[in-house]
Amino acid sequence: MQDLANADCIVIQGSNMAECHPVGYQWVTEARLKGAKVIHIDPRFTRTSATADKHVPIRAGSDVVFLGALINHILANDLYFKEYVVAYTNAATIVSDEFKDTEELDGLFSGYDEELGNYDPSSWAYATEGEGEDASPGTIGGPAAGHEHGHSTSERSAGDEHGSGGPALEHARVKRDETLQDPNTVFQILKRHYSRYTPEMVADVCGVSVDDFHYVAKALTENSGRDRTSAFCYAVGWTQHTLGAQFIRTAAIIQLLLGNMGRPGGGIMALRGHASIQGSTDIPTLYNILPGYLAMPMVGNHDTWDDYVAAIANKAQKGFWANADAYAVSLLKAWWGDAATKENNWAYDYLPRLTGAHGTYQTTMAMKDGEVEGYFLLGQNPAVGSAHGRMQRLALAELKWLVVRDLQMIESATFWKDAPEIATGELETEKIGTEVFFLPPASHVEKAGTFTQTQRLLQWRHKAVNPPGDCQSELEFFFELGKRIRERLAGSDDPRDRPLLDLTWDYPLDEDGEISGEAVLQEINGRHLSGERAGELADMYTDLKADGSTSCGCWIYSGVYAKGVNRAANRKPGREQSPVAQEWGWAWPDNRRILYNRASADPEGKPWSERKKYVWWDEENQTWTGLDTPDFVKTKAPSYRPEPGTGGPDGLAGDDPFVMMADGKGWLFTPKGMLDGPLPTHYEPQESPVQNPLYGQQSNPARRVFPRKDNLWSPSGTAPGSEVYPFVFTTYRLTEHHTAGGMSRWLPYLSELQPEMFCEVSPELAEDRGLVNGGWATIVSARTAIEARVLVTDRMTPLVISGRTIHQIGLPYHWGVGKEAVVSGDSANDLLGVALDPNVQIQESKVGSCDIRPGRRPRGEAILRLVEEYQSRAGVTVETSNQLKTAESNPTESNPTEDGH
Amino acid sequence: MGYLDRQLSGPTDPIADAAWEEPRKRKGFFTDTSICIGCKACEVACKEWNAIPQDGNLDLLGSSYDNTGALGASTWRHVAFIEQTSDRIEQARESGRRLVDLGMPVMPPSQPMSPPHTAGIGPSPAAPGIDSSGGPVDLVGGMESAVAQATMAAATGTVPDFRWLMSSDVCKHCTHAGCLDVCPTGALFRTEFGTVVVQPDVCNGCGYCVAACPFGVIERRPTDNTVTNHGNAQKCTLCYDRLRDDQTPACAKACPTTSIKFGDLDEMVATAQERVSTLRDNGFTEARLYGANAEDGVGGTGSVFLLLDEPEVYGLPPDPRVPTAALPDMFRKAGMAGLAMLAMAAASFLGRRR
Amino acid sequence: MDAKKTFLSWPVLRQFRSGDFLGRGPAVTSERTRTLEPRTKTADRVVQSVCPYCAVGCGQRVYVKDEKVVQIEGDPDSPISRGRLCPKGSASEQLVNSPIRQTHVLYRRPHGTSWERMDRDTAIDMIADRFVESRRRTWQDADEHGRPLRRTMGIASLGGATLDNEENYLIKKLFTAAGAIQIENQARI
Predict the structure, then answer these.
(1) Residue B236 is assigned to a ligand binding site
(2) What is the dihedral of CA A323, A326, A327, A330, to 10 degrees?
(3) ipTM of the complex
(4) pTM for this one?
């Protein structure tokens, strides 16, 4: 975070940093006071725009066109950082000639499976040495990893597994042309792919003027290179799209081309929105991964331990993921202790199996369909905070039992008496059979533990006071619940109960008689179970073994308790140490503050420039050194070259800085791992008033859609009926509130600052629709209608897209209609439907289509009739906008690699 | 000037005038609105520290992102939001340029000038025609280096289509504080830090101070048994309790971008001058200082501001005058009669109070 | 002009003794004013913590007096936040001490129209019972091809992004061992 102060240019896109991360923004302010250029690219002029050098208004959901045009500009004008690109990225790598680009297939890549609505990525693979003899192109990035079709990888959100590194490749023998001239090099493919992404296309699709585009292009390229670095900052403005992961990939390509990755003042900063949302991904409360980004086993792919190990830890690939078997065994040992033995494959079969996507939205739909009996809500308020609030609330009403743990009486706990669906008559309190347990939790000062902040930094919170009344930490609650569940199963001889009964669940208690958080953190850190260091805590993940002699609850966190010291509690004041501040908290992995920082030095190991020195090779002492922990094998000289075919960390050369990638390179082109294409390409959102001008393929052909009667969409593009919902709406947060309001709408000091739900509209739209500042408006989507007070403001800019004016409407989403908060109001998330990004199963909530009209919404049942009237006028059916393939091409016929699969 | 002459107008040291045995350096705020992100942390930190009750009726004001409206009894820091399009921005820039041309106090003339700050460009030689006698300096003309000119041209050449000004307002802790001078009970006093503070245990809620404040800062908290200090006059104390323990006021401590700076007033003014120079050097001729002029109608304020437009735009009086400043003049004209009337007025009030 | 003071007898002497002739300084200070101390000074202890709102991870100092949190403000030692907090972080004390914060276990029975108070121990027991029953009822041993599943699709969870790593670890560990896989949090949203 502090490193942003070292940037010479900061592009904030898909984030409203000043509003949502105000204290982090001090580093942007500092950079700017030192002369850095700050650019904010966003549909709205926000408090970030107000304090940037430049605001570029953009149509929500069109970011790939803008960023793709920057790539085109960089390549066409030779503005990339040549030495960096050739040495550190896969630009020179040659891709299989079976690969077909979207430019040839009207918006589809080769390998599209129309039936499953997903890709077989085998044709995107790197060409292998010896290709053309007997190896099929499909082998790279394939069979050893259990050649997995995009359908099943999407189902298990495999994209999430790459939270700490790239996907496995079969091996590291790839063909390269360092002149970058071979037409099948990544470099040339990239050039061709983005050639139509021109400033004029940007103007036409994004509504950004050619001048504004050039302003950004100039600022970025002039502030990148040996002496200068630029940073990107993004947040959920990029992730909450059906193409979300590809938005971020586009920025990654730019940053690799400009040589900004792994360097001070560079990189891509993901600004996460919750105190430990990074931690809850690292040690996941997510369905598809285990701690440390190890995959949850999937039926058909990981049925046996051998299948699993082969899939996650290919010994032939380069990098540290080759040791994933050690991480997995150590996790199983941490959970099942002595019950995990070599003979039973470390209790691998105690793990339940996935059969598809089981994300929160799939779960909500299953719940609504009566398939889920019990639900725990732990500091989360989906009735307001999740997309499609209606579906969320109707689903809660189908549960047998619900446990809500929250500081305040949130809408998800009171839906049975004050959900909007009670007012419409769809729900009746007396008919809702859900049994609700409300349990108050401890606040952040009433328990000790670690949060992992947005830059992977673990910080220990000391406990200040005991929780009041019945309040109790989650740690204590789940420890207690686990004990009581185990008591109820004690003596069972049913094999299904073994995993619970064999679970290591004996934790020491602290001075208050509660489970010790430090003991849990030690289990996470890992320890030696046998051998001469038996009983000692692990120093680092390199200590971990696949032979059962170590345990570790989360391998990437290994080292946080090295030598028995809680390093997350390190608190050397910032002013007493360097700005990198390594003695404050502990960052994974191995306390590194900038990942891939080997790239801050040139291939010979010297800093690219004095101004941007960070980590370098000390020739005299034959070691890497610098301002941070080098993210590299410390003693591996820049000149080191492995024997061909060497796998694991030793397979990386002395100038392969991307140590978690299977070839040690930064990936401009992803031969594997992305499920909707090896290169980002522009698709329109699920709901859009605009026809995709680049391809016949309107929207992401691999996105996840759910054609259901309770999840309807407006027609898109030029489809008839799209004019019924002519405007784009986008949802967001305000500084004064926090997400669904559970931690802000109940506090008078925050509520008075933003007391009411409002919508932001341009003066032009207000004029057009008769909206008055301070008055009321009703916003109607294909799902429902909500009301909001109106703010008419020049901060909203109508954009001209393909000759047509497009209005955007801004909707903060903090309010809900519950009666218990200090302030309440309609919820913007009620307007949303559920359509997901295929890589990570995140919903598209940053863009949707709507109408707006003056006045308050109808009350009672009348609101249902209003919504139905719109639906019928637009001709909305379950199929509307849910067709995945709209391209004219037939990629399966042009892709011979499909044969035999 | 004699002690009494200084007491109602003109430059003076209010701490010495109040005869503190252990005077401290005068403390104050510098609010640099050019880096304010309008987050309102100052409003919340202030309310939390001072246990100020909820303000208003929880209504949307329809006034950009401002929903607290103005400073008052239960809002001691207030962030204004002003949305402007290019024509107004051009006017602000032009009015800033005029300030210099007219020798208006972009910088307070009574303060020694710091050298124009040229942000890494190096000292620039004085240009012909520049008044180097210590009066207002034409900073724009003072920048002669080609680099600086280029920077300036780049910035001035492009007036943005739109801007959103944010500014955190607070009590000015005036050198000549109308509220203090009219307080009949001694509830308001001048602290050893030169700030002006209400003592809630002394205040009787008469409300004279409310009318005497040229900035409309101080206000009586309505009578309401559910809140503290109801019925009393209330305003920013510059966190007097914290200052007594060498702690930073809550608002300045919280401010994420250091838009609110706190420290010795002379240093605050110097910092403010430097920042104004930097901005003007970069072509932002609309930048100007507010409140740091000892010759103004309140003898200079203890809270100074860097503004990017005319004060009225932020809801600040362009030429604040403490009403009591006219008193000596009145006395000269009315002689003892005036004093007697004032005494009678006070007597009758205090009589009523009992 | 000093007439206003002459009617108050008590500070007069101080006024002249101190030289605060106009009664605008030390002469008029009350006992309360003269002994004023910030509660950050009088606190029994100060505890280092981290802000619970966004993911910047700002350092907080929690001031405790008589086992009550009396103040939460930025920790100047933090190299990330340097003592600063946003409005939400600045409202943390209100989050902790909010008079409308729920501190009792409440229960809504099926088809009920209001909350009932419930003993926490009883509630946890009832939840454990329901957990075990739902798990048994919805257990899936194998799929239609006989491949092992060993899971329940009848129990789900949402939340964790504002919880501690240690808490998420126990949640994931317990639910996974129980065969419940639909364990999600805000990171998916």
Answers:
(1) yes
(2) -170
(3) 0.94
(4) 0.92
